[in-house]
Design brief:
CATH class of the largest domain: Alpha Beta
CATH architecture of the largest domain: 3-Layer(bba) Sandwich
Strand content: 25-35%
Helix content: 25-40%
Oligomer: single chain
Distance between the termini: 38 Å
Number of helices: 10
Structural class: alpha/beta
Length: about 325
């Protein structure tokens, strides 16, 4: 039995935009809240896959850059003392004596109710599968860019042909000493505007090439060997860091094992966002109901519904329709916002 101080009111699994807004609303309701996400930073797919892309379906913003939306959501939850656990994947969930036990890749967490906001599932990067890659991971081989400044003055290569790889190449160009991008096909898969900007930049482009070998001398990373696809030509690149952007895989396998009703790669929910397991709720792209529209704006609307009903589940005398947020913040704007 866990000590009571370790048991949270709400645990939100997923730190994308919808999960972050749920955390904000949980803060308004003064719920003791924890956020768990498998990625190394807040923001989910927006922050990881396309931070420089614009989003057009957020009410009140004709267009907003993905990274700016995430930054605003982080500011919105900043006044609340939520605990955040990153790079943790929930691997098991069981009910114990009136609360849930969440077992992750790093530890165990306890919560009276759980809200899943995991988008299309738990994200893991597609890794480089050549000798030595695993040993260099986190030192010279990277799958995430959480701080561009750590590449300042470095020779950096990015492997990948999609929008995210192009975005990182363009953003790192003014920071790194030299930036290269490697793609196995002759043409990139990114948006035309991004590809045009890439070709106009100082980024060195290697197509169609694949990474053939990691070059290590005396246990020191020196660079990579490239091999031209469908040919025998090879090139050596002197590097300090290699960023792999081959995309991500997502998994919903655990959800079925926990007894949740899953269909069409989503958790089935009721109108109050509850699942077939009392105390567990789902919001955003991971949930499904009749008439569901998969937009960020839809998830933003589902978040308060889930929070309110989760708190009512925890404490039945709690109102499911609390005061308007403007009333809850009245007289506290300067301090909280």
């Amino acid at each position: 039995m866990s000590d009571a101080k370790d048991i949270y009111d709400l645990t939100i699994v997923g730190a994308g935009p919808v999960g972050l807004f749920a955390a904000f609303y949980a803060g308004i309701r003064k719920a003791k809240t924890k956020i768990i996400d498998s990625l190394p930073q807040l923001g989910g797919q927006l922050a990881t896959l396309y931070p420089e892309k614009y989003i057009y379906d957020v009410p009140g913003f004709p267009a907003i850059k993905a990274s700016d939306l995430v930054e605003n959501l982080e500011k919105q939850i900043a006044p609340f003392d939520h605990d955040t656990c990153l790079e943790e994947e929930v691997q098991n969930l069981v009910q114990e004596d009136g609360y849930f036990r969440l077992e992750t890749s790093k530890g165990v967490h306890f919560s009276k109710a759980v809200i899943f906001a995991i988008g299309n599932g738990s994200f893991q990067p597609r890794r480089l599968t050549i000798d030595g890659a695993e040993e260099l991971e986190g030192k010279h081989v990277h799958y995430y860019v959480t701080d561009m400044n750590k590449f300042s003055g470095k020779k950096v290569a990015i492997a990948g042909g999609g929008d995210s790889a192009i975005d990182w190449a363009l953003m790192l160009e003014p920071i790194a000493e030299k930036v290269s991008i490697i793609h196995r096909r002759p043409e990139f898969r990114g948006h035309e505007h991004s590809v045009d900007n890439l070709k106009k930049s100082a980024v060195s482009i290697y197509t169609p090439y694949v990474i053939d070998q990691l070059l290590v001398e005396d246990q020191s990373f020196k660079g990579i060997q490239l091999k031209e696809t469908k040919a025998e030509n090879v090139k050596h690149l002197d590097l300090d860091s290699l960023i792999i952007n081959y995309g991500f895989t997502s998994s919903l396998g655990h959800l079925k094992n926990w007894g949740l009703e899953v269909s069409r790669n989503a958790i089935e929910v009721n109108s109050d966002m509850s699942t077939n397991i009392p105390g567990i709720y789902a919001i955003g792209d991971i949930c499904n109901y009749d008439g569901k529209v998969k937009l960020i704006a839809t998830g933003f609307g589902e978040a308060p519904t889930a929070v309110n009903n989760a708190l009512h589940f925890i404490k039945p005398d709690t109102r499911t329709q609390p005061m308007h947020s403007t009333s809850l913040f009245e007289g506290k704007e300067a301090k909280a916002l």
